[in-house]
Amino acid sequence: AQSVTQLDSQVPVFEEAPVELRCNYSSSVSVYLFWYVQYPNQGLQLLLKYLSGSTLVKGINGFEAEFNKSQTSFHLRKPSVHISDTAEYFCAVSEREAAGNKLTFGGGTRVLVKP
Amino acid sequence: DGGITQSPKYLFRKEGQNVTLSCEQNLNHDAMYWYRQDPGQGLRLIYYSQIVNDFQKGDIAEGYSVSREKKESFPLTVTSAQKNPTAFYLCASRRKSVSYEQYFGPGTRLTVT
Q: Which residues make beta-bridge pairs with B93?
């Protein structure tokens, strides 16, 4: 069975500083990888996804992530954060051949951007 | 605009009562999903449906039931058998054979006292 670990539950960061959110997954088969963002009391919005091809994936709002197959990681980065990036971020994985393309989520990383 | 609607935004119930959460989508998506979110635990899959009149249990289906009579609608019933129903519930949908990501509704926060 697949699993996802987000190594940091909370990440405080100053405005205009870079941020990296770590995500490691475990799966015995090939996977698709996703990062979602959730603002308070709202649903999830897709930031970016890795399906195949280039391991560096660019998403919305200046975020990017790098897929590392050997380390089974999919870390999310942003070179300069804004106050509006304060939110919770979820890494998710879906096994390629799984019925229903079910997503397994990590526990989330809460990012607090300080002025 | 196309999207996923969940109603109501906040729902309060007494212990022992069944309650049904609504999820409607006008995206023409084939698959629909229900997740439960608790603080610090991410999202956990309750049920999913890939076509009308068919659905499968997810990881935490006990105490929940669903139906899929129409492509656009996937209501979730939280029964009195669910031991700890207070949570944030999220509905999602996906267009099969086109994309792999799921699109989420705004969620319903259920409080049972």
A: B32, B103
Cβ separation of B102 and A103 shorter than 8 Å? yes
pLDDT the model gives residue B95 = 86
Residue found under tokens 């054979």: B97
CB count in 10 Å sphere of residue A14: 11
Which tens digit of pLDDT belongs to each residue from A37-77? 999 889 999 999 999 889 999 999 999 999 999 999 999 99
Give yes or no for a contact between A8 and A22, defined as CB atoms under 8 angstroms apart.
yes
CB A5 within 8 A of CB A25: yes
3-class DSSP state for residue B20? strand
Of A92, A101, A102, A97, the closest CA to residue A5 belongs to A92
Which token pair is A106? 């990590």
For residue A99, report the phi and psi dihedrals to the nearest 5 degrees. Answer: -65, 130
State the smallest CA–CA distance between residue A9 and chain B in angstroms. 8
- Is the separation of the CB atoms in A43 and A35 below 8 Å? no
- Using an 8 Å Cβ cutoff, are A76 and A35 in contact? yes
Partner-chain residue, chosen from A42, A104, A107, that has the shortest CB–CB distance to B41: A107
